[in-house]
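Supplementary Methods, section 5.1.

A reviewer requested that the exact input to the structure prediction be made available. We therefore reproduce it here, unchanged from the version used in the analyses.
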Amino acid sequence: MVLNELTIHDALRSLERGDCTAVALATACLDRIEERNSEINAFITVRDRDDIMRDAQSSDERRAAGRAGVLDGIPYGVKDAICTEGIRSTGGAKILDQYMPPYDATVVARLRVAGAILLGKQNCDAFGHGASNEQSMYGPVRNPHDLTKVAGGSSGGSAAALADHMCLFSIAEDTGGSIRQPASFCGLVGLRPSYGRNSRYGIMPMASSLDTVGPMTKSVADMALVMQVIAGSDPKDSTTVPQVVPAYSDLLDEPLGGLRVGVPKEYLEAAEGLTGEVREKTIAAIARLDKSGIDIVPVSLPHTKYAIPVYYLIVPSEDSSNLARLDGMRYGERQDGQNLAEVYSNSRRDGFPEEVKRRIMIGTYALSAGYYDAYYRKAQRVRTLIRQEFDRVFTEVDVLITPTSPFTAFGLGEKKDDPLAMYLADVFVSPASLAGIPGLSIPVGTDAAGLPVGVQLLGPRMSESLLFQVGQILEQSEALASR
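The structure derived from this sequence is encoded token-by-token as follows.
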């Protein structure tokens, strides 16, 4: 039994039976990080081994005393754009190089209470700006399935660490696909929760009206368990909803009589950049759902084609506001200048990567006098149309299924100098982000090169439980098909 390769559920069973200890589990993950991180670059910061061992020993003592938490002894990693008390949190940018948050993000605090053991902070595109994890100022992340390929972004380090078994789950952030796309590229389960389902307190903001926090796991059952711990309202985040968190794990095997799954033609028939292999894998996944007794219904989402231009107006606009607070004066890159304005300008020039600077400039332009109505306000109106379109479709079907990404992981450097080509990587994931609905990426095999392919399940707001149920059907059918 290779401990670091276990799912959360398998690890918890082993801990409960006494087949392994939290110390052994953490040691296995740390050894894997030591062996592979220099090659994959998934972690920016790894906690001191002695501190982790103390946490693991405390976990073993709690279990022996009958006081184990829901995730006691399970090692995990956190995207570096999420605050962790006393642990370096850079957001992937040099302008925050030595930032040590004085508090935990709410999701991290809840995992501490549940007994999970934090290993360290995972690499990401700076402040979530990117689809390949090549916009990190701490170097690109490599895909464990092929080291010449990207791991996806912006949460590439979170995906690569989990896929390479450096941890048993990861916590990341999804604004326009930053969990789902790297999960697809690395063969993982990844969830963008409904906007308001999980607290955003302690998350470095990118676009506040779209940012969400969610897990990456090795199975749907693991996803349901982690979500039970981190979901729920938070007085520190006024955007969270007061709805009770369902017992996701208990609901996984509930029967799904009369379920209708919609297939939007815009995502399969004329989707820009969609490869033949991804289309085939998606169609095969749909066929397995059909075979399981689920009704498959063709639907249309004609405003999908506007999602990318709308997303890349709204997000830079909110970026330009959120990132104005970072000046390089206290934590990271600080350059000299003849006056304060030059200090700010020079520090931001060297402390932000190119994509961050590009988005700040686009956003500032879109919000400027004379252009606000033509760009930002119009984008918000089209965003409303996209949301209303999803609302209409969900009166016809219960869930939608689409590809997660139009292609599998591409080569390092292949799209880095072509921002428009990089933006098209978000073509299937950005519409759900704009609408505030949940999206779950599920692995459904590999292409001819052995690179993972993912499909995306979308549902109405707060329908995570339903997505987990359908996702588990897909997961089980894929396991049977691959035997």
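The longest strand covers residues 439-446. These observations are discussed further in the main text.
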